[in-house]
Amino acid sequence: KAGVTQTPRYLIKTRGQQVTLSCSPISGHRSVSWYQQTPGQGLQFLFEYFSETQRNKGNFPGRFSGRQFSNSRSEMNVSTLELGDSALYLCASSPGDSPYEQYFGPGTRLTVT
Amino acid sequence: AQSVSQHNHHVILSEAASLELGCNYSYGGTVNLFWYVQYPGQHLQLLLKYFSGDPLVKGIKGFEAEFIKSKFSFNLRKPSVQWSDTAEYFCAVTRTKYGNKLVFGAGTILRVKS
């Protein structure tokens, strides 16, 4: 099976812009979670989607949003970008209801200038 | 608030030395425990997991971990490390009622000297 894929892999944006990141989970997986990884804060949970519904949400401002499509692919959107949003954004997929392990994609490296 | 603590941020070992990385979590109830590894330039990979049953779990590449419920701990071990084990190791926890929300520790950077 192909692994989790994320596009684009690298992105440079300017403060105030918005950005959309995409994630394709492993075939058959219904849960997609998003994480932010930074040197200062480490790995932090953004949100999880399961069967097109947001099931869990982390402690991030409303500028961070996501959605999941019927084929389980997911997108996350960040509006009004700030310098502090520069990070590696990781997507993870899981077969479905927990407990299951999550499989991570390579991430999208976002740089905000 | 739930949290996961990893005791060492940096560990340097010589090849063939034994490894133990500590991990503690701060809340009770039913938990699922994971160790992930991030090799240089690669994405996060699952080393091992604990859901229930035998508290001593074995993972890939000779790693094992022991869940001690009374100590809220899930320490990672390997009897003899190799240069290729150089990586960053993350302990993580989920609680069933919170779906797949992984709470990660800060990570431990392991450098193995050849």
Report on the structure:
The complex is a heterodimer of chains A (113) and B (114). Chain A contains no helices and 11 strands. Chain A is an all-beta fold. In chain A, a hairpin with an 8-residue loop joins strand 9 (87-94) and strand 10.
Find the structural class of chain B using helix and strand composition: mainly beta
N-to-C order of helices and strands of chain B: EEEEEEEEEEEE
Largest sheet of chain B: 6 strands, mixed
Question: What number is the mean pLDDT of chain B?
Answer: 93
Short description:
Chain A is mainly β and 113 residues long.
Features:
heterodimer; A: about 110 residues; mainly beta; about 0% helix; B: about 110 residues; six-stranded mixed beta sheet; globular
Describe how the helices and strands are arranged.
The complex is a heterodimer of chains A (113) and B (114).
Chain A (H helix, E strand, L loop, with lengths): L4 E3 L2 E4 L5 E6 L6 E8 L3 E9 L2 E5 L6 E5 L5 E5 L8 E8 L8 E2 L3 E5 L1
Parallel strand pairs in A: 2-11
Antiparallel strand pairs in A: 1-3, 3-8, 4-5, 4-9, 5-6, 7-8, 9-10, 9-11
Chain B lengths: L3 E3 L3 E5 L4 E3 L1 E3 L5 E8 L6 E6 L5 E3 L5 E5 L4 E6 L8 E9 L7 E2 L3 E6 L1
Parallel strand pairs in B: 2-12
Antiparallel strand pairs in B: 1-4, 3-9, 5-6, 5-10, 7-8, 8-9, 10-11, 10-12
